[in-house]
């Protein structure tokens, strides 16, 4: 809640100073200074990707119109406008503009230029931040991580008006980046790659659109991974290192590129069957959270939006589930949906789900590549197709390896896991040893090879954690 009374703010500072004299009082270290206002780089980067992809798709559609390629033109416009409209709706919904008198902003959204005006607003807020003293609007309470462990007392940081406004912009653009990546850039890249193979030549504009779409997809996948970490460990101050970002880029880039290449190659030979493959994946990932929801006989979460009825909440959950399914068609979404929870995300990591996903996805990709190899057309006679199949399989294997490296060595909260990659591999090896050991040694196996509890340093906390929405992707 906002508090604009100077006297109350002064009293708060006095109390904070008294608590700062004893930094471990009540297990909380009080920090008086406002948090540093970071530049809205994520907002600017998302806007640049949105504009670049929209402009390239418009130019390419115009070229298709001149050459009478009606099918390519229609699909390109569809994959350009549908995510653009959803982006405008998302930005309008997050900023609650329908209940405010802002005709210029709404007009810009109608022109599909909402991200541009939002980016300008964020830059103006950042430039004006710190020029005058402002009272805080909330307090963020976090626990610092040192060497991957939560050490020391929790610390509190005051959140000012400018920081809160920038946080709203960042959160809105995180949503739009994911929507643009998996509802627009992914089908757009798939379409243009398929058109390139079918027409047997590469247009410069088409190549530029494919490169921008690939960058947008990888960035959207990175946003999904970072958001999943921040949601699961929302009471810790999470800092991502450059090595972690590099590992995630290699992991996500190889995974998505291999998946799209496999689907496109398969579609050039068995066009009708690729529709069946895509719809099967979509239905499985769409209904999986709902089946778990109905199996637990849970109830719909409350307070997703105050003005929503049960019907409105159901519609929102269906849209979230649809986006979740579209992400999982091409890459691991990094989260498991829990439709009964207010955050809609299951916060306990499920290694079994991760292992099942990548195992089945690897088997599916190999199957599609083998089918393409046996039913391929004569167009590929000048290409070493066995080498291409091996390359795609190896690239997907490298993506899985980089994913394991990230969770084992680069994950910012890896020391908070109950079990890590090394522990899972060790347990698998122990299980094999126990099966080959005599019965008398079999009883002592679980005690000798039990994985260490990496969370014994955590203590129970009774704190009212305020959601920290200040972190940028």
Describe this protein's structure.
- InterPro entries: XK-rel, XK-related_adapter.
- With 473 residues, the chain is α/β, with parallel strands linked by helices.
- The protein is 65% helix and 6% strand.
- It folds into 3 domains: 1-239, no CATH class; 241-417, no CATH class; 422-460.
- It has 15 helices and 5 strands.
- Strands 1, 2, 3, 4 and 5 form a 5-stranded mixed beta sheet that branches.
- Helix 5 runs antiparallel to helix 6.
- The protein is globular, with a radius of gyration of 25 Å.
- The model is unreliable at 1-26 and 439-473 (pLDDT under 50).
User: What's the mean pLDDT score?
Assistant: 78
**Are there runs of 5+ residues with pLDDT below 50, and where?**
1-26, 439-473
Q: What does the largest sheet look like? A: 5 strands, mixed
Order of helices and strands, N to C?
A: HEHHHHEEEHHEHHHHHHHH
- How many helices? The count is 15
Rg calculated over all Cα atoms: 25 Å
The domain count comes to: 3
Question: β content, as a range?
Answer: 5-15%
The count of β-strands is 5
End-to-end separation: 25 Å
- Fraction of residues in helix: 55-70%
Backbone structural class:
alpha/beta
Shape: globular
Keywords:
473 residues, 3 domains, five-stranded mixed sheet, XK-rel, XK-related protein
């Amino acid at each position: 809640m906002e508090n604009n009374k100077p006297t109350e703010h002064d009293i708060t500072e006095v109390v904070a100073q008294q608590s700062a004299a004893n930094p471990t009082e009540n297990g909380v270290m009080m920090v008086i200074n406002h948090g540093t206002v970071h530049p809205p780089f994520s907002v600017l980067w998302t806007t640049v990707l949105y504009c670049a992809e929209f402009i390239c798709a418009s130019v390419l559609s115009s070229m298709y119109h001149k050459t009478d390629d009606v099918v390519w033109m229609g699909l390109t416009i569809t994959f350009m406008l549908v995510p653009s409209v959803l982006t405008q709706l998302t930005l309008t919904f997050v900023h609650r503009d329908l209940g405010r008198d802002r005709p210029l902003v709404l007009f810009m959204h109608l022109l599909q230029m909402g991200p541009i005006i939002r980016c300008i607003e964020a830059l103006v807020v950042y430039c004006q931040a710190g020029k005058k003293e402002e009272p805080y609007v909330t307090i963020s309470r976090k626990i610092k991580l040192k060497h991957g462990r939560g050490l020391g007392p929790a610390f509190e940081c005051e959140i000012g008006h400018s920081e809160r406004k920038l946080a709203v912009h960042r959160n809105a653009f995180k949503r739009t980046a994911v929507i643009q990546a998996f509802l627009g850039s992914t089908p757009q890249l798939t379409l243009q790659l398929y058109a390139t193979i079918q027409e047997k030549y590469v247009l410069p504009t088409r190549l530029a659109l494919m490169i921008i779409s690939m960058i947008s997809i990888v960035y959207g996948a990175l946003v999904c991974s970072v958001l999943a970490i921040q949601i699961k460990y929302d009471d810790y101050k999470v800092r991502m290192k450059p090595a972690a970002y590099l590992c995630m880029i290699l992991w996500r880039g190889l995974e998505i590129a291999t998946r799209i290449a496999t689907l496109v190659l398969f579609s050039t030979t068995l066009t009708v069957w690729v529709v069946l493959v895509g719809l099967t994946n979509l239905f499985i990932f769409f209904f999986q959270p709902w089946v778990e929801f109905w199996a637990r006989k849970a109830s719909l979460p409350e307070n997703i939006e105050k003005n929503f009825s049960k019907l409105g909440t159901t519609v929102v959950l269906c849209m979230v589930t649809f986006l979740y399914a579209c992400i999982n068609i091409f890459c691991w979404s990094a989260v498991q949906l829990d439709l009964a929870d207010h955050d809609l995300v299951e916060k306990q990591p499920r290694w079994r789900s991760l292992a099942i996903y990548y195992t089945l996805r690897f088997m599916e990709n190999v199957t599609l590549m083998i089918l393409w190899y046996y039913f391929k057309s004569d167009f590929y006679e000048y290409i070493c197709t066995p080498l291409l199949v091996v390359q795609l399989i190896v690239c997907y294997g490298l993506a899985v390896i980089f994913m394991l490296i990230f969770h084992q060595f680069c994950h910012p909260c890896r020391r908070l896991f109950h079990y890590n990659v090394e522990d899972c591999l060790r347990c698998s090896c122990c299980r094999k040893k126990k099966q080959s050991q005599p019965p008398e040694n079999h009883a002592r196996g679980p005690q000798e090879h039990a994985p260490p509890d990496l969370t014994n340093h955590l203590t129970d906390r009774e704190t009212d954690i305020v959601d920290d929405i200040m972190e940028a992707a």
